[in-house]
Write a structure and sequence with these properties.
The protein is built from eleven helices and twelve strands. It is an alpha/beta fold and 303 residues long.
């Protein structure tokens, strides 16, 4: 299987590197010339548990060099999804598949403007990666990857991708209702990302103050009401689960926090902002998520 990864940041490089190590033909694409040059010159350096290894992988800033791919994995930040979808559509043509494991809601819908929705596979992953320097990443954590078809009930395409990824050490499960999985992952991001981005704290520090824990709970409970209003099942202990995730990742800065630290556009519109947009359509009020969204967007306007 020929695989192209659109977005060679920490997560895109990690998945591309693992797939290349398993024997797949993999290309990394990114507009970040320094990253691509470092990977082409020295290979991709992956650090994990104090050890490092080098993976030789093809990388380019020109998608025409890749030609056609059987699978395109989109790993850009949500604000870059539309141009990434255009590239993915050209690379897969009418036969290939596109997989999105991006944070937030709306990414698969944007990709579906370019790629037939029955050729889109969506999902979530609990793997974590940190970009250390051009050509260097840290594999910061492992966990479940769950995928499913964005449209239709035929899971053959998703099963094929899951087999390839599992062989690469990315244990992957296929489910029928992937939208429920994506919404439940969104609830975690709703509770952690904006708060850490606005305050400069690490994930675990949310738990240090009662007022901050209460803010997380209010944001998540609003998002849970929006999720249920769409007929999507949500676990009763979701708030407690988000607390547990914050504790387990206590030393980390959320991805949105890192974006703010580096004065980059955040994924707020695809996370808390998505809750606000869908709530408005449903006639629901979500004042906490509205406020968090407004504050993050105000902050990034100053970059």
């Amino acid at each position: 299987m020929k695989i192209a990864v659109v977005g060679a940041g920490a997560m895109g490089s990690l998945f591309g590197g693992l797939l290349a190590e398993s024997g797949a033909e993999v290309w990394l694409f990114d507009i970040w010339a320094e990253q691509i040059a470092a990977i082409n010159q020295n290979g991709l350096n992956i650090e994990k548990d104090g050890h490092s290894r080098r993976v030789h992988i093809k990388a380019t800033t020109d998608p025409d060099h890749i030609e056609k791919a059987d699978l395109v994995i989109v790993f850009v930040k949500s604000p870059q999804t539309r141009p990434a979808a255009d590239i993915a559509g050209k690379l897969v043509g009418s036969e290939g598949l596109v997989l999105t494991l991006q944070n937030g809601m709306g990414n698969a819908d944007i990709i579906a403007e370019t790629v037939a929705d029955d050729r889109i596979v969506a999902g979530t992953t609990s793997h974590g990666a940190t970009l250390l320097a051009p050509g260097r990443i840290r594999h910061a954590g492992t966990g479940a990857t769950i995928i499913g078809m964005w449209a239709g009930k035929n899971l053959d395409h998703a099963d094929r991708i899951a087999c390839v990824m599992t062989q690469a050490g990315i244990e992957t499960e296929v489910v029928q209702n992937v939208q429920s999985v994506i919404w439940n992952k969104l609830l975690i991001n709703v509770g952690i990302n904006a708060i850490t981005a606005l305050t400069g704290i690490k994930n675990g520090q949310i738990l240090d103050l009662e007022i901050t824990r209460n803010l997380l709970q209010a944001a998540v409970e609003e998002a849970m009401s929006v999720t249920r209003a769409q007929g999507i099942q949500v676990d009763e202990d979701t708030v407690e689960h988000v607390f547990q995730v914050a504790k387990a990742t206590g030393a980390n800065r959320s991805s949105m926090g890192q974006d703010v630290d580096n004065k980059r556009l955040t994924e707020i519109d695809a996370i808390n902002g998505a809750v606000v947009r869908i709530a408005e359509k449903l006639g629901l009020k979500v004042p906490v998520n509205l406020t968090l969204t407004a504050l993050v967007k105000t902050l990034q306007h100053l970059f």
